Amino acid sequence: MDNSTQLQTPSQSNIYERVTKQIIQSMVRTGQIPWRQTWVTRENKPLFYNPVTKTKYKLLNRLLLGEPGEYVSFKQAKDHGGKIKPGSKGKLVTYWSDFIPAKDKKLKEELEAKGEDWSYLKKWTLKHYYVFNLNDIEGFKLKLRNETAEFGETVESENPVDLADLIADGYKTDKGVKLEISGALAPGYNPDEDLVTMPQKDNFMYEEDFYASLFEQFAHSTAREDRCNRKKEYEALRENEITNKELLISDICSSMILASAGIDRKESTDQLKAQIQKWVEAMENDFRLIISASRKAEDAAELIMGKYNPN
Question: What Rg, from alpha-carbon coordinates, does the chain have?
Fold first, then answer.
């Protein structure tokens, strides 16, 4: 990212706190859980999109941006003849940047000289910059490029449940996870058998609840080393425990898949309030929680959706 797009840089701990508090404030203000909003493509273009780089914004940035649209940095706007309208404010977005710690630089040079792998020495840090909605930019005229952006296979289905079934069947076939729908009292995932167990659909008040629970369990199955490799969370699952982070990962992952399939969750006001309170408290206790979980949930959702990923 171009450094000219950055404003005053907060400390590393402050950027985590700032991002988390912004998401919490949005939840409290709107009474909604932002990752349960609709994130699908329209006219073969993601709802949160950079027309200059022809890329979609990652999940965490969609939560920060809030309003769907096309967003560019100040420099990108300027490079394409744009001028920010008076009074317009940029919105914070983040990205991950790798670096080699000072103590490891000599070792990196030694390994590099020997032609050996040094990538394991990399550490990652969260950085930020600001973007503007194209509606807040005058005179922006995109310089045409030759390359064409691709956003995955478009699947036509009038029935969202049919698409949800396609996603589920595709994941089982591609990754080998087993699914048993029987008389189970509650949804569950057995890591040792790589088996998801689900009650019959009739046991759920709404059909949508069945798919929400199914994709939450599929999300847990992605913790395996040969899938998304969430070691700490996977070991906890094997001990019949679920960490707060894993619960959030599964919630976000399931929500992304449901939204992509066009399935709306049916929740009462009381249920929604309780969910918001639970996640607000969890995020207030750990400013890194939503940042880490959103990244891992996006990886899990992309793995499960495979070719049916519209984003």
Answer: 21
- Tokens describing residue 57: 């914004």
- Phi first, then psi, for residue 136 (nearest 5°) are -100, 15
Amino acid (one-letter) located at 158: E
Q: Could you tell me the end-to-end alpha-carbon distance of the chain, in angstroms, rounded to an integer?
A: 22
The CB density around residue 113, as the number of other CB atoms within 10 Å, is 9
| CB atoms inside a 10 Å sphere around CB 307 | 11
Say what the pLDDT of residue 142 is.
Answer: 83
Does residue 188 contact residue 179 with C-beta atoms inside 8 Å?
no
Listed range (17-26, 49-58, 115-124, 150-159) with the worst mean pLDDT: 150-159
Place of tokens 């691709």: 150
Other CB atoms within a 10 A radius of the CB of residue 104 amount to 16
Nearest Cα to 188, choosing from 218, 166, 161, 164? 218
- The DSSP bridge partners found for residue 182 are 199
Residue 9, pLDDT > 80, answer: no
Give the H or E element holding residue 111: helix 105-113
Residue found under tokens 């985590």? 16
What does pTM read for this prediction? 0.84
Are the C-beta atoms of 171 and 218 separated by less than 8 Å?
yes
pLDDT for res 190: 96
Q: Look at the chain and count its residues.
A: 311
| Residue 119: both structure tokens together | 């990538």
